[in-house]
Hints:
Blueprint: H1 3-7, H2 13-17, E1 26-32, H3 38-50, E2 54-60, H4 72-80, H5 95-100, E3 103-106, H6 109-118, E4 127-129, H7 144-157
Helix pairs in contact: 3-7, 4-7
Amino acid sequence: MSDLTKQNPPSTTAARQGVGRHPRWRRILLVCVGNHIRSPIAAAVLAAHGGDDVVVRSAGLRYRHVGKGPHSNAIRAAAERGYDIEDHIAVKVNFRLLEWADTIVAMDHTVLDELQAIADEHAAPKLRLYLDGEDVHDPWEDAYPAFRSCVEVIERGAARHLP
Length: 163
């Protein structure tokens, strides 16, 4: 069971496996480059604020971090704001996840462009940018304050994705 499922547990085995549809849940997939910083933070924020109305997952475009946990600064910055992403394990986006989601949210324009290139006719209409017209900055090589800022930006943008 993923860290996000633990934060917002579905009530059925089928929902945990990503099959079937619960009539009131909105399924949101957050995507960044590595599923190592921004998308796990955004997923935790949306899960915390969306309550029982959302089920959230995250994924990345690259294999680099697949099977690994989040960046240590991301864990720390998220925890300071009350979000636990420590148990998150990075996964790569795939067609099953794209099909599962009701909404697919890219953390920046580059990610959105790559998703548009791989999305089929069913996934393409579900794509959107996390912020309206702006990128969520990737603090990958930045100092710790940029990670804190990333969490704050993600929190400010969360409401537009929640029912």
